[in-house]
Amino acid sequence: MFFDTHAHLDDSAFDEDRDEVIERFRKAGVNRVLNPGCDEKSTRMAAELSEKYSFICFAAGFHPEELAGLTEESFDSVCALAQHPKCLAIGEIGLDYYWDSTRKEEQKALLQRQLLLALDLDKPVIIHDREAHGDCLAAVRQHPKLRGVFHCYSGSAEMAEELLRLGWYLGFDGPVTYKNARKALEVLQICPLERILVETDSPYLSPVPMRGKRNDPGNLPWICAKIAEVKGLSTEEVARITAENGCRLFGCP
Ligand code: NI
């Protein structure tokens, strides 16, 4: 059993063959997927997919890259979708200073609103942190009761230790299989197995040997195999333990 805790199946990259892709990865043993939303439209589509497929659940949220499209109406819709029975988290939310470093204060305000929503609904969060490590850490530290995952973790080993102390999970994706993965592997070494989540971030970040192609949850075993190699376990053990971790954090039924 594999649990891909981060796949954007609603992405237009799957418009041509979404149902076939889903059928294929299911047959390959990936039998649980969490689809985070990035704005109102993608959260709505993720909710629809979760209604169509029993093994798909979703998260509701406004990604920092979607800041320009934010309106009060769209934010209210995301809040309403967050109450859907198959919405297991608030995400994908966070800070992205690589994409836009000129609107940091607006990004931080949007993040705080959504952290408060998560606390209000007692749901975990899925954090996107790109070149904003210090501010992301500061934001989550303001809320000791908050729990969740730093998706596609890209910070230092020191910051990872701090997050682990605070009870957070770390998400590992295709980049752990890349040749230049030194930093991610360093973090993997110190991250206890019970705090690791595995994610594809489909359709992006395909692992080796699929690098460069469209990614989908069927590639999750390549990521688990790399983690298994680092931890000295079998791929099956990593798959089982990380699936249990995901179910524990997200409260899967
Ligand atoms: Ni993502």
Describe the structure.
By secondary structure, the protein is α/β, with parallel strands linked by helices. It has a single domain, classed as Metal-dependent hydrolases (TIM Barrel, Alpha-Beta Barrel). It has helices at residues 18-27, 40-52, 72-81, 104-121, 133-141, 157-165, 182-190, 220-231, 235-250; strands at residues 2-4, 30-36, 56-60, 87-96, 125-130, 148-150, 169-172, 196-198. The chain has an eight-stranded parallel sheet. Strand 7 (169-172), helix 7 and strand 8 (196-198) form a beta-alpha-beta unit. The longest helix has 18 residues, at 104-121.
Task: Note the topology.
Layout (H helix, E strand, L loop, with lengths): L1 E3 L13 H10 L2 E7 L3 H13 L3 E5 L11 H10 L5 E10 L7 H18 L3 E6 L2 H9 L6 E3 L6 H9 L3 E4 L9 H9 L5 E3 L21 H12 L3 H16 L3
Parallel strand pairs: 1-2, 2-3, 3-4, 4-5, 5-6, 6-7, 7-8
Helix pairs in contact: 2-3, 8-9
Nickel (II) ion (NI) binds next to loops.
